[in-house]
Design a protein that fits this description.
The chain is mainly α and 169 residues long. Helix content is 54%, strand content 5%. It has a single domain, classed as Up-down Bundle (Four Helix Bundle (Hemerythrin (Met), subunit A)). A hairpin with a 5-residue loop joins strand 1 and strand 2. Helix 3 runs parallel beside helix 4 and helix 3 runs antiparallel to helix 5. The chain starts with 13 loop residues before the first helix and ends in a 5-residue tail after the last helix.
């Protein structure tokens, strides 16, 4: 599987710029996972960490769902992988978890996010609120998601290097 990354436009309007950077970081995570075996995608960084590329993808599916559905629309779809008993369940892989399911779920959540943001302005406010009771603008959510992906793509860089020695931005 070859993943193409599109560089964000350098002179676009604000929305195009934010969505371009968000898509770039989504594509970067996909690129870091490309052409690896199921076992490689399950390889943890170093003990005692359980962090894996598959776990990162599952985490980002949860994060996409949370911010672009639960917070933005104020509707709780429930969690995908975590639970009351295991709040970090997306990182704890069982033998029955597969890359195909993780990837497909992540892509479905990205598509849901795109549908949920279509037609909304950057200044439109979320139905869900912060702990302080403030509503988030779509601009804030997009910016936060860029930060979330960028941080985890740094983790993905290290995991990929651990798995097969590949490096690169």
């Amino acid at each position: 599987m070859t993943t193409e990354r599109r560089e964000p436009a350098v002179n676009a309007d604000e929305r195009t710029m934010l969505e371009g950077w968000l898509d770039y970081h989504r594509q970067t995570l996909a690129w870091k996972c490309a052409d690896l075996t199921e076992d490689q995608l399950r390889t943890a960084s170093v003990a005692p960490s359980e962090l894996t590329l598959m776990g990162l993808v599952r985490h980002m599916a949860e994060v996409e769902r949370y911010w672009y559905h639960e917070v933005l629309l104020g509707e709780d779809l429930g969690v995908l992988y975590s639970s009351e008993q295991d709040r970090d369940g997306e990182f704890h892989l069982s033998d029955s978890d597969t890359w195909q399911e993780a990837h497909d779920t992540w892509q479905a959540e990205i598509e849901r996010a795109r549908r949920n943001t279509a037609g909304r302005g950057l200044d439109d406010l979320s139905k869900g609120t912060s702990r302080a009771g403030e509503h988030f603008s779509l601009r804030w959510i997009h910016t936060h998601m860029i930060e979330e992906y960028a941080r985890h793509n740094g983790h993905a860089d290290l995991l990929r290097e651990r798995v097969d020695g590949s490096t690169g931005d």
